[in-house]
Design goal:
By secondary structure, this protein is an alpha+beta fold. The protein is built from 6 helices and 8 strands, in the order ααββαβββαβββαα. Strands 1-8-3-4 form a 4-stranded antiparallel beta sheet. It has a 4-stranded mixed beta sheet with strand order 2-7-6-5. α1 packs across α2 and α5 runs antiparallel to α6. The chain is elongated and about 65 Å long. It starts with a helix and ends in a 10-residue tail after the last helix.
Amino acid sequence: MNRIELQQRLQRHFQNSVYYTGQDFNDSIQDGVDEVCAFSGCVLKSASISFVNNLTYYDFRTLLPDYIGVVAIFNSTIKRFLIPSSLRKFNQVRIDWETAPGVPYYFSPVNFRYVAIYKKPIVNNYGDMFIYYRASAPTLSDSTTIPIPEDHIDALESYNKADLWEQNQEFTKAGNELKAYINMLNQLRTYMSKKDPDRLPSLKG
């Protein structure tokens, strides 16, 4: 489904040109798709980034402008996925882990933008990492396909109904629709979590 098709569905539902313009519908759809994609992780992308000599912390938010969160990292030099872990586990393994040189085998998200790599290469042109990540939604046009699984597009439509009713101060209707939206969003999050690759082995000390 694209934006114009969803707008037409919403127009048929509300059938009131006095309160809602085409721009009102489009703004609500964009706000909704931004939120649904951010909370469900339904936009999955991949990109290649070069390992940097002697670098531990990578700013994925700068390197990947639509980055929301990392799913998996593949080390193309050794042909294997890095193992996800935590900074706490790194510190348990060795207190000076941030300065430890060697083959990158593990990674840990630090915050919304930085990811730590352990160990770090200390040679130039070591190779590339292949990043699988959750991305933000694109800016929609009328013909843009909405990047939400077709079976779960009702979550976005429910968001729009709640949003538009709230704009018209129909707070009871908006509140009821918001409950439906939250339920559908949780279903979509569950669906997306089952699609993710299993990257859960722990770092062994």
